[in-house]
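Hi R.,

Here's the chain you asked about this morning:
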Amino acid sequence: MQDPNADTEWNDILRKKGILPSKENLNELEKEAEEEEQRVLQQSIVKTYEDMTLEELEENEDEFNDEDERAIEMYRQQRLAEWKATKLKNKFGEVLEISGKDYIQEVTKAGEGLWVILHLYKQGIPLCTLINQHFGGLARKFPDVKFIKAISTTCIPNYPDRNLPTIFVYLDGDIKAQFIGPLVFGGMNLTMDELEWKLSESGAIKTDLEGNPKKPIKDALLSAVRGSVPMRQGSDSEDD
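And here is the predicted structure, written out as tokens:
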């Protein structure tokens, strides 16, 4: 079969008849095809970069040319920035125990835009123990929030036990909310969800709970009263 790209009299006739494209159009088509091929190749290379970890990029850097190196460096910086952002966001995840000498560093100078939740407690107070347990679960659930606990008198000398448990919520070193004394927490029936909701109202955590899990006291009392009142014989409910 004759080469349509060859410069022959027959091909010239075919070009005049429009059967073959002109040389100029043919060159443009070939150029476009080459550009498309390069674009597809570059996309496949970038896809390969995206599938690699930072360690894999380091291991395979000798196999890349100068153009690859520039693309890899841009991608490496992007991945590094994402990694740092994730580390910064999830840098806690557990409850930190402090004493008074740590307060300024861990609370006042904790960092700009960082929420800090401090529980003042004492050993031997059951509700304090319960809240410390809930703090552990909440710290894991909200690793971008700094959860701290401290024995009350190590932070505030002579702090009265009647005020325990006490929770202070800080942002940029300023107190945004405080919960003082057992009545605020509702006693030993306090659940982790209820504590989460209470802290979310201060703005410190973004809860995924759809509503306050604690029943309003009025409703709870009404339910208790209804349950304790015996049904009268001959009432409408027994007429059936």
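One quick note: Residues 23-51 form the longest helix (29 residues).

Cheers,
M.
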